[in-house]
Records
---
Amino acid sequence: MLDNLLIGFQNILIPSTLLIMIGGVILGIIFGAMPGLSATMAVALCLPLSYSLDIIPGVALLIALYIGGISGGLISAILLKIPGTPSSVATTFDGAPLAEKGEAGKALGVGVFFSFLGTAFSFIALVFIAPLLADFALMFGYFEYCAVAIFSLSLVASLVEGSLWKGLASAVIGFTLTMVGTAPIDGYPRFTFGIAALGAGFDILPALIGFFAVTEIFEAASSAAHPEVKGKIVDFKIKGLGFTGAEFKSQIPNMIRSTLIGIGIGILPGIGGGTSNLLAYATAKNQSKYPEKFGTGIIDGVVASETANNATIGGALIPLLSLGIPGDTTTAMLLGGLTLQGVAPGPLLFAEHGDVVYSIFVAVLVADIMMLILEFVGMRLFVRVLQVPKNILLSCVMALCAIGAFGVNNRSFDVITIFFFGLMGYAFNKVKIPTTPFILGFVLGSMVETNLRRGMMMTMGDVTPLFTKPICVVFLLLAVFSIIRATIVRVRQTKRERAGMQ
Amino acid sequence: MLKKYRDVICGVVLMIVAVILFISTFSIRSLLGMNPGPEFMPQVASVLLFIVSAGIAIEGYGHSKYYTEEEVDDEEKKYRSAGRRKVLYSVILIGFYVFAFDFLGFVISTIIYEFCQMIILTPVGQKKNYLLFAAVSIISTVFFYIVFNYVLYLMLPVGLLRFIGL
């Protein structure tokens, strides 16, 4: 493993790659810091760019964007009280009050430093767990893969907030849309309505760009009807790291716990920083000796949130690299980026492209260090960028979306695709159908179908191995269990709400 | 009334979609006579969709009993309808943009798009700086075109600009 890591370092520590990564981290931080833009969008928009680079600089760029993006959210969370990305919602709870008390420098210093630690620890987890999981996954056959994909879908659908039925519907709709195009194995055209361009089905990249970026533009249009309440940016001073050695020592248990939560949530497919920051905050509050102080402006809240959301990065990369199942929406984009380069994530990735895998690991560590340095040094510049008006910014972002979509296959059909997925995303939001299960359904849909049909080909149409093979049974039972658990939780919640209302 | 039964309507619409989907799978015939054929998964998907949509509709019906009409003052009502209008304009504009992308070419369609979108996204009550919007539209579009076409070799559609020999 050590020599693999050394190869990874050799691949990454080239001046041109490092320069590209610095650019990626900076762009990622900007996207992460701006409310309305996100890490996922940053990765989506730079996918065509990564494609025109060689594979290792290309993937390193995407990783740099990812890390910068997740971390950047804390800047606006603390200074504007608006989370730059969903991963930084909990940072506003204590980060903003700290800023209001005149301690913005401390909040920012704590946020950046513990973001760095979160990613660094998850890097260690990534290096040790991913190869093990990949080895285990090599035992998987077609039916096992199908069962894992079904489990992932059920998990995502059941872990979303709100209606379980809507979560499941979201996953099923995403899953159904993968069936547009030629069927796997026998190539029969399905749901193409005679349109030649639909023969290849919907490409995941335009779908994601449409679903996340274009939907944002519609949402921005809706909220632009309100006169703008310009968030006042709080001024700040940072001395050194912003916090003392004693404060750091007091946060170590919190940090360890939040890191573990972040990594765990990251490993679970489909849920990412958006969930881990809130869970870590809630846990820190529950286990704290002074829970009543949470929300008034204590660093514990910022530490929990920012450590967890950055730890999720390494965690989310684990299932992506070892199983080919994205850990969250940004890694879903990474999946697309890797596939574009002809490198299919999954257990065989370690065997066939080990240098790429370990270069990714090293890229995580290097980008993490870059983020730490750049955010401390360049904080004031990033704050300046926050002041670009949204209307100008989003219009340019849409142009980049169109370029990105076009660049995937060099056809205008993909540009039209982003419009329809944007409409769909907006419709989902209006009816409060969660969007994450849709993406997972879309990504995993073909995995389920191809593997199931291949498996059934080998068993001459017999589907029973899916329900009898031991690994399959385990995952299917876990799927059923997660749905039942989710139902019980919701029934209890509704009963409590009804009782509260009476 | 619409809001009260929003989930029910959503569920019912999706149920109808599921039924249409299921019926359409009957025309899918495997060329290789395989079992299961390419119609299998679409059928599974449409059945699942039907079940979950029914769940949404039933759950929505149950929730509708507890529905309380939201108190919205007149000013908020004005903002909401203005918001809906802005969304509609954006939908039409982006629809125009994606279809004109190829025909008009990247440069022309993007300049038109950016300029109009900036106007739409300007918050109500804020002054629209048309000069700034025009300048940013043109400069950003040209910048993207040069970077992507000549630096990254991603050939963007030239469209009508081919008549001036680009």
---
Amino acid sequence: MAKLYLFAVGGTGTRVLKSLTMLLASGVHINVDEIVPMIIDTDINNGDLEKYRRIHNDYDLIHRSCYSDLSKDSYNNHFFRTKISKPKEISISGTSFGNLMEMIDYNGLNAAGNSETKLLIDLLFSNEVLNMKLDKGFMGNPNIGSIVLKHVIDSQGFKDFTLDFHAGDRIFIVSSIFGGTGAAGFPLLLKLFRSNLSNMNNIGLINNALIGAVTVLPYFEVDVTKFQSGESLTNSDTFITKTKAALTYYDQHVGNLINALYYIGDTQKSTYENIDGGEKQKNPSNFIELAAALSVVDYMNYERQANDVNDLSKFTRYFEFGIDKDLETFNFRNLISEHKYFQNQLSSFAFFSVYISNFLKNSFYNSNLAWRNELKINTNFLQSDFISALTMFCNKHYYNYLIELAFNKHGRRFVPIRLKFKNVNYDTVDEFEKPVTPELTPEALFEIINEIPARKSNSIFKKDLIKFDQIASSLAVNSQESMNGSSELRFIDLFSRTVNQIIKERF
Amino acid sequence: MDLIYEFWFEPEDFDLFTLSYGYMVGAIIFLAFSILNTVIYYLIIGKSTDAFSSNTVWLIFGLINSVLIFLVTISVIGFKLKENTSLEDIDIEIWIFSIVNAVAYGFISYFILSLILNNFSTHSKFTPFNIFK
């Protein structure tokens, strides 16, 4: 049972994890039995993390209802197929340290013999930084992160990880290079994993494990006036400088430790509000994060047979990602042909979500419906926790995600799916509080995939329509595949195949 | 009731051949039309679309089946077999025979055939209900 330990460091790490969860919900196959997210963030109350916790809860309930105790190779490319464990939040909570001054016992440096150290600290850290509360991340200051994050090794979550680690398991680190937590956390973690001086459990296995990482180059800016006025400690004007410095450091100290390093960045920058962590920090999902999530899938296909570094044909490889055209608003048409698979899966999931929001309820009240009877699902199913979680995931989290990707203040808006919602503002990051139903006509169903209309075969005698229930019934009646497992699995299995057939026939 | 009783059980004005022949023709008519209608409903329409897979449409098909059986029965028995030339000439017994053939036997056969043939349908497999699932 190979696992992937996915270290999501800082805010970007959490948001990449969210994109990965969306990919896996849409049935993208990843060559691993289980993903164990390890979230490293001192700001445990930040809005992005809280949002991800809710997304994961719903994903996990759906996955467990369907695929518990099933072998890895069954039901590939089905929605919610991959197990994502409950994220281990490695809580090196800033609240327990207070601020940097307390953490390093700055006042203790006044003692005789410490004056040189104190001067060095004064040189490296300003008074604002020394007094900055650490419970909201490091606000773009990796020099603080590199000190605080050393305590990661003492956390229970990290100890659990080292105890659980088995031969064949892999590690992947997601971080940004330009912020505070991620920029400091990535090289620090990497050194920790490769150090044979550490007294970690399973140190031999971890030392030789395959380690990959995606490092996200600057892709957003924040309002610098807040920094200039002293309201915030985050200054996005320094992101590029920090990135250059970090890249130089990586060149010298990371290349010989990592096995697969993915670089991702964008010249078009998004503009976000300057919020110093906490529950208000909810940055909208960005295509960059989705592309970074694709690197996790790619990494698990990299040297598939390799169990540890000794099996690799080359110790380190570097990867990049690109789109077809440099457009400010783009969609599936602008992805290269290698990404056709992701396009199909994401399109399938969009159709599935539309079915859940716009058609499922009515279908359940049709007692003659063949697929429902064939699957032996009764109307109580509609009130089950499974359907509640599915509705929350598809009609709240996923629709919110699509809207976030198309956020107007993104430097590059990704608009792959065209759905019309009431009261949506693409200039703010207000999210739906509960599941929503898009406004949809039968004709609009053909136009859901932006700029890639579905094939239509109207005639004077017959108007062509996309009929979910009809296709589902044909599949349910004509094959016995849907008859195995729990009713939840039968439902997901049938509709995974139904929307895949729609995609195959219409696109 | 007396008329029906007489027609089916004590026919005085029909000879035995005409009577059994009439029964046979009536049976062939309701069976043929019920089979035809259920085949169209379940095996032709019911395999290609779910647009007609509802109890209401099934009932409408049943009513059409009965009407067709009635029309054909009255035409064949009343005009052809009994050699009447106008509706006024047709005996009340033939009218009642046609109605019973259509409403009772026609609909019952349609119902029974539905429960058998719906198993071979795709979208109408559970219309009106399925006794095997």
